[in-house]
Design a protein that fits this description.
Helix content is about 40%, strand content about 20%. By secondary structure, the chain is an alpha+beta fold. A three-stranded antiparallel β-sheet has the order 2-1-3. A hairpin with a 2-residue loop joins strand 1 and strand 2.
Length: about 90
Amino acid sequence: MSSGGCSRLLTMASDAWAEIVVSADGQEVTIGRVVGPRPDMATVDALARLQLAAARLGCTVQLRTLRPELAELVELAGLQRLFVPGVEPGG
């Protein structure tokens, strides 16, 4: 992941596209927010890579307070069940 992708994902800001929450062993920690210009598929790719890295460590990543623009891209990529609590496959 490029340093631009990291800064886009982890910078804290009030105009965030979503909050990034990592869960493991019943504990949750908000690690950052998705910020920056309008999200695109590169943003979703970076989030998918973060989810993969977290899974390798026995953790999960959830997105909270998604704004509609990012939620649509996550759904378009078919990844909503990975990031959004309570979403079932195909739902």
